[in-house]
Amino acid sequence: MKKALITGIRGQDGAYLAKLLLEKGYKVYGADRRSGDSGNWRLKELGIEEDVEIIYMDLLELTNIRHVISKIMPDEVYNLAAQSFVGVSFEQPILTADIDAIGVLRLLETLRDIKPDTKFYQASTSEMFGKVREIPQTENTPFYPRSPYAVSKVFAHYISVNYREAYNMFTACGILFNHESELRGLEFVTRKTTYAIARIKRGLQDKLVLGNLDSKRDWGYAPEYVYGMYLMLQQDKPDDYILATGETHTIREFVEKAFEIAGFNIEWSGEGIASKGIDKKTGKVLVEVSKDFYRPSEVELLIGNPQKAKEKLGWQSNTKFDKLVQIMMEADLKRIEREFK
Ligand code: NAP
Ligand code: G4F
Fold first, then answer.
1. pTM for the whole structure
2. Could you give all domains of the chain from N- to C-terminal order, each with its CATH number?
3. I need a labelling partner for 215 at 20 to 30 A (CA). Which of 70, 75, 106, 330 fits?
């Protein structure tokens, strides 16, 4: 039985990946930094709470990491743990760098010392392209990170590549574009939107307040993306791969489509900070923009070219934009109905 250690087990990707690896017959260890029982909701929703062995491990503490690796001696490590919210990285840049950059180095150093033949997956990100140098972005597009989060992830990416080249370790980096799901955290714009719309529909909230509506993202469906991570570690040689849909949409389009699925028809007025989304039927303002949700430096456009993953891994994204919004919107409508029945 192969042993996999997933850091960030209580996050969106950690939960989906755990489910996939359990289905493949792995013994799955989930590294958790002790965030309390409420953090279990994703594993519960997927019905795998009892099947994963939770082990306490924080990327901030080297001795803790060493004990965990010595104890498990994993065949594969998927490093998904991160302070993953770009907005917060401007408020907590040092903590973000300690977890997202140096935390990865702590893990790699430990593996080099204790279990160098472990296959290692690093969760790299399209945020590294930032102020994009090329459209669409490929594995060869230069990075131009625009936040403390993205800068930390560039370090993590290159240190993983360096351990591959310097020590011949199997380190694969997945440069994943945004991937969402019904298990996405509420702080991210997609889930913030679908959850708020479900509450508006139930009369629990008046409006949705967002930041920049004009940035564009390449959004895919998370369960498909964790399959790509798994494939990267099943190859003979380690490499870096983009996972993306190859389509891009504005935040405004996501919001409009989600309202439509929930039965509202939104009409836009104004631009930038003065934008408003108005319900055509009632004339009520349902969407407003606040400076509070703008970032000091923004990533305006992301669109990935997933050709290499398609050719070498046989991976592709099948859930397109409309379907993704529908899955997320319907899940939140059901959730709110259940909660307030
Ligand atoms: P997520 O839902 O925010 O999950 C991240 C997990 O990391 C959380 O469970 C968090 O624990 C844990 N964590 C944070 N700090 C930690 C620390 N010091 N030690 C140990 N664990 C810690 O993120 P996700 O969306 O699943 O993303 C997974 C990974 O892929 C992240 O590294 C993210 O940066 C990267 N990524 C995500 C996307 C995307 O679109 N989702 C795209 C590209 C790359 P708590 O539950 O205790 O907070
Ligand atoms: O949903 P977001 O917070 O995701 P972002 O910044 O693209 O980061 C996510 O994807 C990355 C991959 O590219 C991951 F590496 C990262 O860990 C994370 O999963 O914001 C998306 C866009 C931004 O342009 C933001 O300015 O939506 C805009 N936005 C507008 N109003 C908002 C809001 N974002 C959030 N979170 N909240 C708002 O109210």
1. 0.98
2. 3-181+220-247+303-313 (3.40.50.720), 189-215+250-300+321-339 (3.90.25.10)
3. 330
